[in-house]
Automatic annotation (TrEMBL):
It holds the Pfam family V-set. SMART domains: IG. Residues 16-116 form the Ig-like domain. Keywords: Membrane, Signal, Transmembrane, Transmembrane helix. It comes from the Eukaryota. This is Ig-like domain-containing protein.
Amino acid sequence: MDCGWMQRMFLYLLIPGVSTLITVHQPPFVITVLGNDVIMPCHISSDDTLSPPVLYWEYPDRTKLWPPSEKFKQRVDRVDENKQSLNKSIILKNVQWVDSGNYLCKLSVLTAETKTPYRTKGNETRLIIYDTVIFDVVTHNRSLLSCQVNVSADPGFVLSILYNGHKIRSGKPECWERGCNLAPQLHVLLSVTISLTHGGKYECQLHFNKTLLTKMVSDYIMHEQDVEIFPEPWLYYGGFLTTHFVTLSVITAALLTCRRGVHQPDQEYPGI
């Protein structure tokens, strides 16, 4: 074993100023509704700096979220304007589908121990978005109940319908079951439909992993008009019977003709 390497690592961890003094904390994901304002959390573990840390927020394509680039101008603010605050979170306003993705909080720091500025960063936070859930009977067929919602292309979403508290159907895009890559898409449609056979309490729930994001409840009462009744096809019945009547008439006439031919007496010819 290289003892010299072990010694260097030991000194790196013990000598003040050699290891990173400030830690940046970010949550793994943040979930919000389309069109809402959302806080992107970022906190630091220490304020032992000679000057206020310089804050940077970056979008996946390295577009600056803070200080705001042209793309995010007028849409981003600091949660705490005090530069000495440990809270480096920002507010992203009017979230759109194009905003979904990973965000990174970075700091340029100068401490008494390090003497020279250095950069530190947190782990990326993924912004996950969903739209308003629509839960209603199908317009063209009132015997069907449908629940649907648009969500960002993240495989943790699950949409479910419950009847009197029991889950009867759930769904996610089939592509997610195969582990496919939905990255090029900004959002996808989740949809679940069931047949309405009984009255009772129906509920639509949207989960991300095991977290319940939103739900809609409908106490449904079955009405006679909700059961789709198809009119009797009398014209079809009439045509069917007429065809058989004509066929039977033709067969009967043919049989009678044959019988008359069989029972006709032999003609007598003179001279025989």
